[in-house]
Amino acid sequence: MTTDFSALATAGVQTLQPYQPGKPEDELQRELGLTDIVKLASNENPLGPSEKALAAIADASQNLGRYPDGSGFQLKATLADLHNVAPAQITLGNGSNDVLDLVARAFLGPGREAIFSEHAFAVYPIATAAVGATACVAKADNYGHDLDAMAQLITDKTSVIFIANPNNPTGTWLSKGELKAFLKLVPSHVIVVLDEAYYEYVEQENYPNGLKLAKRYDNVIVTRTFSKIHGLAGLRIGYGISHPEVADMLNRVRQPFNCNSVALAAAQAAVLDEEHVVRSRELNSAGLAQVRRGLQSLNRPFIDSVGNFLCVHVGDAALVYQKLLEKGVITRPVAGYGMPEYLRVTIGLESENQRFLDALEAVLSE
Ligand SMILES: Cc1ncc(COP(=O)(O)O)c(C=O)c1O
Question: Average pLDDT for residues 332-355, to the nearest whole number?
Fold first, then answer.
């Protein structure tokens, strides 16, 4: 008799749809035999890591026989200094994704509810279902988070609210005033995750710094990452900042060595290299303007974004995605986010953005 392993999994895991990552360049190369490929699918920094981070990586690579510092002492000290918080408030993660998962494992479970928005980052439903908690999804307002709709979903079973600011894949954002008004409504027993993976890219004046809100509200956890503007997506490192008792709970479910030694060293160098951050932000700002202009001249509607990516309306997105792949341009379909007529494109180098715009023009006129 064969075993039905799916029936052995927990109820939450049985309902899970695995995360769909952007297609790696190697895969497209294998599938279509293409060599000249532009990957604009995973919101990575086209400049990659800073020289200082690369030097730290080379240095840390000399000592791979040893376990990393499981407490992440040095990186926590640096981040604490930078953000004016105590090291005990920081939780390091194998990417900020790991921290989101730790939040779910520490604060969610069967009988508990998590609230997030329609079109919000895909890890929220996965982390919620994986621990058997119930997802309460608020209708979006013009693709952005509708905080009133989210507040209305709060019950006495609500344990966690996930808010991406800005949100991926929509690139929409919440202002200081909107978030402050919302946090006033949230009971103190509900953990609010402010996911700020794209924080450093946002240039809008009334965009809030979640860390200031976390100082005022003990139930707020801010998550940040080294995968985006710091260009270290491949090393997997991110962090959360919260009340120390919340960090203590996260630490209890954390794997002892969840952050590797190379990532710890690279992050330490990256976070201090403000010049690289500024260069990356400026490149992104110019690239966003270039892509916006290009899409306007192609008469393609798009959702305006403050991140390093943008969703463009293309109609049959699965078909357009495939045709772009054939031209060596990898974008990201977002049908899984309830947006089957959109493709998300990451802002790349000027030449990569142009390649995308030219390929899109060609595909749409076929
Ligand atoms: C909104 C948001 N949060 C968190 C993450 C997780 O990033 P990482 O685990 O690489 O830090 C991503 C990655 O795309 C994201 O878009």
Answer: 97
What is the per-residue pLDDT for 33? 86
Cα(346)–Cα(24) distance, rounded to whole angstroms? 14
Which of 20, 43, 94, 96 to mutate for ligand 1's pocket (most ligand atoms within 8 Å of CB)? 96
pLDDT over 90 at 296, yes or no: yes
- Reported confidence tier of residue 230, pLDDT bands at 50, 70, 90: very high
Protein residue with its CA nearest to atom 2 in ligand 1:
197
The maximal CA–CA distance of the chain, rounded, in angstroms, is 64
CA distances from 346 to 12, 132, 227, 332 (A): 32, 33, 13, 8
Residue among 91, 168, 271 whose CB has most ligand 1 atoms within 8 A, to mutate:
168
Q: What is the pLDDT of residue 34?
A: 87
Contacts of 73 (CB under 8 A, 6+ apart): 87
> What domains are defined for the chain?
21-48+275-364 (3.90.1150.10), 52-272 (3.40.640.10)
Residue 19's pLDDT band (cuts 50, 70, 90): confident
- For ligand 1, the distance from its centroid to the CA atom of residue 62, given in whole angstroms, is 29
Query: How far is ligand 1, taken at its centre, from the CA of residue 289, in Å?
Result: 23
Query: Atom 3, ligand 1: which residue's CA is nearest?
Result: 197
Residue 306 pLDDT more than 90? Answer: yes
Q: Which of 358, 184, 349 is nearest to 279 (CA)?
A: 349
Gap between the Cα atoms of 266 and 232, Å rounded: 8
Say whether pLDDT at 35 is over 90: no
- Contact yes or no for 168/309 (Cβ under 8 A): yes
Q: Is 171 left (phi over 0), alpha (psi -120 to 50) or beta?
A: left
Of 174, 216, 177, the residue nearest 196 (C-alpha): 174
Q: Residue 278: its pLDDT value, please?
A: 98
Residue list, ligand 1 pocket, CB within 6 Å: 43, 95-97, 121, 164, 168, 195, 197, 225, 227, 233, 238
Which amino acid residue places its CA nearest to atom 1 of ligand 1?
168
pLDDT at 21: 86
Report the separation in Å between the CA atom of 171 and the middle of ligand 1, taken as the mean of its atom positions.
13
Cβ–Cβ under 8 Å, residues 310 and 171 = yes
